[in-house]
Amino acid sequence: MSAENDWSPRSQAARALGWIDPETRAVTPPIHPASTFLRDPDNQYSSGYSYARDSNPTYDQAEALLCELEGGAGAMLFASGMAAAGAVFLNLRPGDHVLAPRVMYWGLRKWLLEFAVPWGLDVDFVDMGDPASVAAALRSGQSRLVWLETPANPLWGISDIAAIAALAHDAGALLAVDSTVATPVLTQPLALGADLVMHSATKYLNGHSDMVGGALVTARRDGFWQGLAAIRHDGGGILGAFEAWLLLRGMRTLFPRVETACRNALAVAEHFHGHTEVAEVLYPGLPSAPDHELAARQMRGGFGGMLSLRLRGGEEQAVAVAARVTLWARATSLGGVESLIEHRASIEGPDTPVPGDLLRLSCGIEAADDLIADLESALRTG
Ligand SMILES: *Cc1c(COP(=O)(O)O)cnc(C)c1O
């Protein structure tokens, strides 16, 4: 699954590896909705395709491009980010010990607590911003997996992938990284020592808020990867052909979208840093952020399109500001071309680590001045 040229990642993405449909010379691939494929007279499948739960030709180019951008040995699309993440944990055995972040995408934290723990995984939630806490929680020979997310939802703390990979490997565990927010434009976890990368492809990879999908990329095509392929195949959490096609189209503009989102996030963060209505701006791109140095070392070309604001007026003001904005869309999710705003605490429920005064912002590709003016006027009125 390697590229057939020596283009830079930006060109690989823009041209989707440069693949041309061999039959028609079309510059974009066809969608293959077929669920089944004809057998040869000798009962073989010379095309390599047999049934759409096994593999689908519409996946091939999207998986190959993502694999190339992450520098992996293989990539697999899933029905959603949660299906991809869940597959990694389901590929372990009841009784296995795993480490997960204290602050992470809340849906996966909820699934770990409500499904994976009752199923039998022994999960410790640790501070992934502190490699010493990770070292202390690892049990040599017993820990099978360390899961981390960086930047981590929705406080945007950074975890040191290289340091944690070394600790995990010393203990005999794998390291998997939810790189949804960083994207392969800003961070390549496999090059830093991670074994697996997970994406909610719903977010930046597709980038247009018009499909739900997930992906895993592996450093090695080993037994663990074969297990993941069996979970997708046998469990059936496959992506539809139309979604795979939309994902490939979305990935062609990944670089300019992520770069614009990073610029907008930095502009918003700088504008509201020290603002009279704002208690704190959480963004690793601000030089005053506690993780700024690590972020600058680990992330290339930007600090991501996500940031959070903590408002002096507390929860009441946060909810009111989200109600008053007009350009920012009041909606969940992230990583699309449209900027989104969300009061996370009311979504995540009573045991969330997220403060009530926090608004999560996903910067899209609109003009930074418009985004800032809209927030300013929402903060001023009321
Ligand atoms: C959205 C998201 C997920 C879950 O992905 P779905 O595609 O919604 O299933 C996991 N991790 C992060 C960081 C996310 O933003």
Any overview of this molecule?
This protein has two domains: 9-251, Type I PLP-dependent aspartate aminotransferase-like (Major domain) (Aspartate Aminotransferase, domain 2); 255-380, Aspartate Aminotransferase, domain 1 (Alpha-Beta Complex). Helix content is 38%, strand content 15%. The protein has helices at 9-14, 57-70, 81-90, 106-119, 131-137, 161-170, 183-186, 223-235, 241-251, 254-272, 292-298, 314-324, 344-348, 368-380; strands spanning 74-78, 97-101, 122-126, 143-149, 174-178, 196-200, 214-218, 278-282, 306-311, 329-330, 340-343, 358-362. Strands 1-7-6-5-4-2-3 form a seven-stranded mixed beta sheet, with helices on both faces. α2 packs parallel to α9, α10 packs parallel to α14 and α12 packs across α14 (368-380). It is built from 14 helices and twelve strands. The mean pLDDT is 96. The chain is globular, with a radius of gyration of 21 Å. With 382 residues, the chain is an alpha/beta fold. α7 (183-186) links the parallel β5 and β6. Bound molecules: pyridoxal-5'-phosphate. The site of pyridoxal-5'-phosphate has 17 residues, from α3 and α4.
